[in-house]
Write a structure and sequence with these properties.
mainly beta; single chain; 2 helices; 14 strands; 10% helix
Length: 165
């Protein structure tokens, strides 16, 4: 898969936010490095949209954020760490709708947490509309620099009445 410096990308001026490389929708990984060569970020794109993992690192080399996207929408895990490597955010999103949140400071397992669908007004209806339209879409991983769709792995963390079979 093509890896290019993110400074070589242009953004479409049609309001879509699509990433362009040499005038065409970009598919590949946009990377950013410090002048000293350390990796700052890498963002996977498919057909101009963020698609797959997006990661940023602190200058000390520790991972700062890891988010997953599907066709431009936050979709999958969203995690953040502090400079010492402690997890500070651990969310699951489905097409830009937050569906699960765990407090990383609590002594809990990854299965513990709060269903955002059950606790935040309006979110459940919005999620149900998205789920009815799209179904449980897969999460895209990069394996050997190729896009691989993995089955949606998070339904076990949803309220039981909302889980898919």
């Amino acid at each position: 898969m093509r890896r290019i410096n993110d400074e070589l990308l242009d953004m479409a001026n049609d309001g879509s936010g699509d990433a362009l490389f040499e005038g065409a929708l970009f598919t590949g990984i946009a990377v950013e490095h410090l002048p000293t060569g350390e990796l700052v970020s890498e963002v996977a794109h498919r057909d101009g949209k963020r698609h797959g993992p997006s990661r940023e690192w602190f200058s000390n080399g520790k991972l700062e954020t890891e988010q997953y996207f599907r066709l431009g929408a936050r979709h999958g895990t969203w995690r953040e760490w502090d400079k010492q490597g402690a997890l500070t955010r651990d969310d699951i999103w489905e097409y830009f709708v937050p569906v699960f949140r765990r407090d990383p400071k609590a002594q809990s397992t990854p299965e513990d947490g709060t269903s955002v669908l059950a606790s935040e007004p309006g979110t459940r209806k919005r999620w149900q509309q998205v789920r009815a339209r799209c179904g449980p879409e897969p999460v895209t991983e990069l394996v050997d620099d190729e896009f691989v769709d993995m089955p949606w792995p998070f339904d076990d963390r949803l309220p039981e009445e909302l889980r898919t079979e």
